[in-house]
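Contributing new records

If you add data, match the layout below exactly. Sequence lines come first and carry their own label; structure lines follow with theirs. Keep one chain per record. Anything else will be rejected by the validation script.
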Amino acid sequence: MNDLQRAVEIRQAYSLGLTQVEIAQKFRISRSTVSSTVRGLRLPHAGGPIISSHRKWKWSDKQRVLQIREAYESGLTQMEVAKKFKMSQSVISLIVRGLLHKDLI
């Protein structure tokens, strides 16, 4: 498989709902390579769906942030919460520690 075909497959996988981490593991590449590929910064001429913004929900989705905090407070680990919400553990960490969406604490 050449780089152009691989870029199309990566973009299709992301558009179907796989996380960047899952795609990186599947293709044995870094998550940052996945990110630049799905945003069209890497191989923009390759084809496939290119995203204009990250993921399907907006950071302003207060209900989602509250659900993430509730899941963590119920005893799930940050990694378990990340998998449940298809997000990275680092973003979950920022949310549960109150460093992201401080207005919802």
